[in-house]
From TrEMBL:
Domain of life: Bacteria
InterPro entries (UniProt xref): Zincin_1, Zincin_1_sf
Protein name: Neutral zinc metallopeptidase
Pfam family of the protein (one): Zincin_1
Database matches in CDD domains: MMP_ACEL2062 (cd12952)
Amino acid sequence: MTHAKFLDRLLAPRLEDIEALAAQALAEIPPALRDKVRDVVIRVEEFADDGTLEAMGIDDPFTLTGLYRGVPLKDKSVSDSGSLPDMIFLYRRPILDEWCETGVSLGDLVREVLIHEIGHHFGFSDNDMDAID
């Protein structure tokens, strides 16, 4: 193993790495469902911004791994226009923290967070998704 490869293994996955894992997870979703999220923007950021955390009543930014921001499909109307696109945020640092704590593979964890947020896009609540799990 070269020195450079050894150093790569010591570095935490970057935003781009999480984006690639999210793209891979999205590609594995059945086409009929994937078509329903094709207009949803997926962004990876370090943490949720302070305004989001405050609005959600979250004190510890490490507890929020993902967020869906938009109008769920079941609530959309043809008269909706001029609004921002629906977005899914994946938060790198909290995801990495959970990855280190749980031992779940990073790809599986990113997939789990992404699918959870896609569930919100379809109109499922956290309780709905907990019941499905």
